[in-house]
Q: What sequence folds into this?
């Protein structure tokens, strides 16, 4: 990677600047963060992108929000979030994931029952620390 801001283009210090290819494990069924979406992105990926491109309090927009991975990470990092998603089933997952409401369209928003789950993973600990969603905290839009 070349830093073209320098008077003479110079190679970046590779220990400080991420390379062109980023490696993150894909989201697997057994992971705490798994939701029922065919192309769910890893939270670690969004964590890096959001930290690198925004500050706490900033507004993060994801116009193809899916299960709101971007929103979940943005919220954890103290950013505000606007998500746009056309599939109602993914919006419901996102609303539950961001703890906005307990129900939508008369349906209780519950995490998928999994036959295998890591009960001591980081998101399990986070969920316990956060407490559950509170009805009326915020509306979904
Ligand atoms: C790659 S997925 C996003 C996955 C998301 N990052 C996650 O981790 O769950 C793209 C999403 O964009 C949605 N989408 C595609 N076209 C759209 C449109 N025109 N308006 C709103 N959402 C759209 C799809 O339904 C799909 O859920």
A:
């Amino acid at each position: 990677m070349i830093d073209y801001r320098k008077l003479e283009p110079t190679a970046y210090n590779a220990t400080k600047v991420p390379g062109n290819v980023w490696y993150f494990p894909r989201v697997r069924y057994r992971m705490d963060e798994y939701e029922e979406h065919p192309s769910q992105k890893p939270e670690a990926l969004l964590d890096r992108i959001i930290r690198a491109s925004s500050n706490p309090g900033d507004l993060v927009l994801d116009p193809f929000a899916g299960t709101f991975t971007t929103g979940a990470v943005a919220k954890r990092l103290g950013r505000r979030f606007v998500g746009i998603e056309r599939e109602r089933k993914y919006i419901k997952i996102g609303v539950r994931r961001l703890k906005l409401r307990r129900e939508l369209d008369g349906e209780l928003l519950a995490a998928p029952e999994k036959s295998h789950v890591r009960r001591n993973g980081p998101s399990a600990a986070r969920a316990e620390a956060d407490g559950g969603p509170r009805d009326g905290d915020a509306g979904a839009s």
Remarks:
- The longest helix spans residues 43-53.
- Residues 37, 39-41, 64, 66-67, 69, 84-87, 90 surround S-adenosylmethionine (CB under 6 Å).
- The CA atoms of residues 5 and 12 lie 11 Å apart.
